[in-house]
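Field reference: sequence -> structure
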Amino acid sequence: MNPDLDLGLERIIRAPRATVWSAWTDPARLAQWWIPAPTRCQVDRLDARPGGAFVTRMSDDGAEFVPHLDACFLAVDELERIVFTNAVDSSWRPANPAPVAMTATITFGEHPDGTDYRLVIRHADPHARALHGKLGFAEGWGTVAAQLATFVEQEAAR
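Structure field:
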């Protein structure tokens, strides 16, 4: 991780790695935690393979859904790593996404207590990194990671 260009997050999720992986790769499960509550998520496309589409929409009222993410998967290594970017959209066209272009790498490692979950968000330059930080990277991605943990930990407890 380059501290001048990247932002990161790490946490131990007390659920099996396969459960956390499935929460990322199953559209119905991803919709349960992907956007900070109380905003709701709709998954339009989730083709978790290199070159596959990752398209979500969001709604504050549950009725009208607006675009949230139009991205492309770059790498998908089962149970280990997911990499996607919004700098290329789901139709493989170059994009200039607002508020910032990024490439996200999520890794899923074995841990005695469950899953070692790590996220690195890469930016093109220090300005983009700073803007993403100022706009609430820690709060947004932190909330989403906490929602993911709650979702899969409750599932694992059943």
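Note: The chain has four helices and seven strands.
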